[in-house]
Amino acid sequence: MSAARPLATLRTVAALAALPLLLTACGYGSEATDDGGKQTAVAADAKKLSADEVSIGYFPNLTHATALVGVQEGLFQKELGGTTIKASTFNAGPSEIEALNAGSIDIGWIGPSPSINGYTKSKGKNLRIISGSASGGVKLVVNPEKIKTLDDVKGKKIATPQLGNTQDVAFLNWIAEKGWKVDAQSGKGDVSVVRTDNKITPDAYKSGSIDGAWVPEPTASKLVSEGAKVLLDESTLWPDNKFVITNIIVSQKFLKEHPDVVEAVLRGSVKTNEWINANPDKAKASANTALEKLSGKALPADVLDPAWKSITFLDDPLAATLDTEAQHAVKAGLLEKPDLKGIYDLAPLDKVLKAAGKPGVSDAGLGAE
Description:
Layout: H1 13-17, H2 19-22, E1 38-39, E2 53-58, H3 65-72, H4 75-80, E3 84-89, H5 93-102, E4 107-110, H6 112-121, E5 127-136, E6 138-142, E7 157-160, H7 166-177, E8 192-195, H8 201-207, E9 212-216, H9 219-225, E10 229-233, E11 244-251, H10 252-257, H11 259-278, H12 280-295, H13 301-309, E12 311-313, H14 319-331, H15 347-355
Parallel strand pairs: 2-3, 2-4, 7-8, 7-9
Antiparallel strand pairs: 1-3, 4-11, 5-11, 5-12, 6-9, 6-10
Helix pairs in contact: 3-11, 3-12, 7-14, 9-13, 11-12, 11-15
C-alpha cells in the first residue's frame, strides 16, 4: 500500500525503466482487460443528466466491491437516471490510468499507487481523487512449518505482487522498521523479496519456491486455503486499523464538464457502501456473482468469506494514509519526495455526504485549490 506523486523521480535508470510497474495497482496482474464496455439498461422515460453516458472502470477484485455491487444491484443507474453507465474492467492500474487519459473511461476505482503515479506523470493535470471506497484486505501469510513468528521472516523468501506496488512498498517499509536490510530493486538482503504475479503466487507457494507472501485479498485467503497461516494483517499497522486500498478517481475534464454526473456516481457509491455495510451477506454474494460474470468463476466460500471480512467499505479516502504510503516509497529508496498537493477534490463528495446527513471527510491538506 504505497504511493507517490508529481516531481517523483527514480534514483536509478533501471528504476526509471520500471516506472509503469513501480506504482501499480493492488490487483491481479499486469494485463488490462475490458469487458466489452457493457452498458446497463435504463428506463425509457428516465431523465438524462448533462452527459448521455458515463464510462466507469474497475477491477474484478473484492477490494473494488463498491463498483461490482453498485453496478450489479443497479444502485448507480438509479442515481444516473437516463444517463447510461458503460462499464469496463481492468487487471492493472497503469492500463486504467491510460484509459482515463485517453478518455475511454471517465471515472475509475483504483489503488492509491497508480492514482499517485498517474497524477505525478501528468504534472497534476489528468485526474483527481474524489472519494474513498475500501480499506484493508492485505495480509502477510506464511508457511507455518517454516515461519512461526515475525522474527522468523528473516532469511525467508516472501512474495509481493510487483516491484514498487503498494504491497511491495508496505513490506519493504515493515522490513526496514524491523531493522533488516534489503536492496529495494533486487529484493535481496536479510529477506528475499520475490516479486510474483498474484495469479501464480498460490502455485509458487505450493511448489515451495516462496515461504510466504504479503498480498491483497483474495490472494491471501487463497494461500490460507492451501495451508498457509496469517502472520500479520496490515491493518494492525495503521491508526484505527484503516488505510486506503481503493480510491475513486475522475478525469479533471469530465469533472469540470459534467459535475452533475460525477455527483450522481458519488451518490451511488455512498448508497452502495451503506447497503454493503447494512447487508454484508447479500453484498458478498452480489460481489461474487459479479466476479463470476466477469471471470467465469466464483470464489469458493473458504476464500470468499475470510477475504470479505478483512475489507472495510467506506466513503472516506483516508487521505493521510495515502500521504504516508508515499513517504514509505521515498523511505524505501524507490522515489524522490513527491508533491501530492491537489490530488484530491472532495467538494462533490462532501456535498453528497451532507445531503445524506453524513459528516464530511478530510483531504489531509492535499486538496485542489
